[in-house]
Design a protein that fits this description.
12% strand, binds iron/sulfur cluster, nine-stranded mixed sheet, binds FE2/S2 (inorganic) cluster, 373 residues
Length: 373
């Protein structure tokens, strides 16, 4: 049953946790790292070079807001020099004039721009940043003018799910080649804000119909990816394509993780690039090997025909809801506690519709989780 160890093909580099926005669904950890914990330029370049040696073909430059790194052009050029495909994941706010063009000049291959809403008021409110929507539109225009292929990313939740048709129009009007309708995954800040963010069942069903119709109608014009909401699913998604299977991520201080929320699994400890080499972390780290392949699985995953399709779903969701990172993801209908997902949806609805609790977000910022919402 062991799966042979293949080299990783993708890497997500969280260059910084700093960000001008405060989205309540951010996938960053609750303990955000300050600027003085970030790797310096030379160390990121050394890490990228090792990643390329290891087999990584594409790097997603993310954050926080990666454009806050003044050395971003240098980092892009370092990756491009090694022939690695680069995707910049940005909120598109506060990028000074000339920089998007400089990223393209340095060799950037693709830009992914998030919109918190299709309407300006929604974008500004969810990101807690006045004028954010207008700045994002400008970033999109500049990216297209610089010849960069553009993806619009729309994280979907209770407060913007009715804007899905407008997101489609927005992406078309900006000349995007791809739109991601990505229902929020409840990890990081989104788990803290789950009750406020969880959409209504009827809205989720409507959204699925709208997206399916648009995918058919706009085939060949724009690609629309649909990330379904786990809590309403029958089967889970293969989180990160399977634990330590073909991708990994690096936090701003160089900690190498199999996924965003891996540090919420208390039994695991994670290593940092320098002194450890990426190749040795990828192959030998006990944390990377903990849920690799299928040997770690319990029933019902162990005997399931889908075990090499979804790899048992999300380990961090199993930890958060079942209290056991090796349990079947509760999003799966075969999980003995699958019914708990429906209970959490109902509980969220009850809480979110209490007038005083509406939009009582814990906005993402350092120290916010110690305050009451
Ligand atoms: Fe996937 Fe496990 Fe559910 Fe099977 S039982 S569908 S492997 S999560
Ligand atoms: Fe960690 Fe899904 S976020 S496995």
């Amino acid at each position: 049953m062991s799966t042979p160890l293949l080299p990783p093909i993708g890497m997500l580099a969280e260059l910084t946790h700093r960000c001008p926005l405060q989205c309540p669904y951010c996938s960053n950890p609750l303990e955000l790292l300050k600027a003085n914990r970030e790797l310096d330029t030379e160390t990121w370049l050394a890490l990228f070079s090792e990643a390329a040696d290891l087999g990584v073909l594409q790097v997603h430059l993310s954050g926080g807001e990666p454009t806050l790194r003044r050395d971003l052009e240098q980092l892009i050029a370092g990756l491009a020099g090694r022939g690695v495909y680069t995707n910049l994941i940005t909120a598109g706010v506060g990028i000074v004039e000339g920089r998007v063009e400089a990223f393209a000049e340095a060799g950037l291959d693709h830009l992914q721009l998030s919109f918190q809403g299709a309407r300006p008021a929604t974008t500004d409110r969810i990101g807690n940043h006045k004028g954010a929507h207008e700045k994002k539109l400008e970033t999109a225009r500049r990216a297209r003018a610089a010849g960069l292929p553009l993806t619009i990313n729309a994280p979907i939740h209770r407060h913007n799910i009715e804007e899905v048709p407008e997101f489609i129009d927005l992406a078309l009007s900006l000349g995007a080649e791809r739109l991601e309708i990505a229902n929020v995954q409840y990890a990081g800040w989104a788990l803290t804000n789950r009750d406020q963010l969880m959409p209504e069942r009827e809205a989720v069903d409507r959204q699925a119909e709208i997206v399916a119709e648009a995918q058919e109608r706009l085939a060949g014009i724009i690609n629309i990816d649909f990330v379904t909401p786990d809590y309403f699913a029958i089967y889970p998604k293969p989180c990160m394509g399977g634990w330590a299977r073909d991708a990994f991520m690096v936090t701003p201080d160089g900690t190498v993780l199999p996924c965003h929320a891996a540090q919420t699994i208390p039994s695991l400890s994670f290593e940092r690039f320098e002194p450890r080499r990426l190749s040795s972390i990828w192959a030998d780290s006990p944390a990377f090997n903990a849920f690799r392949g299928t040997d770690w699985m319990q029933e019902p995953c162990r005997g399931c025909e889908r075990r090499e399709i979804d790899w048992g779903g999300c380990r961090c969701q199993a930890m958060a809801i079942a209290g056991d990172a090796a349990a079947t993801d509760p999003a799966c209908a075969k999980s003995p506690i699958h019914a708990r997902m429906a209970m959490l949806i109902d509980e969220a609805r009850r809480i979110a519709t209490v007038p005083s609790r509406e939009e009582a977000f814990v906005y993402r910022r350092i120290g916010a989780v110690t305050e009451s919402a």
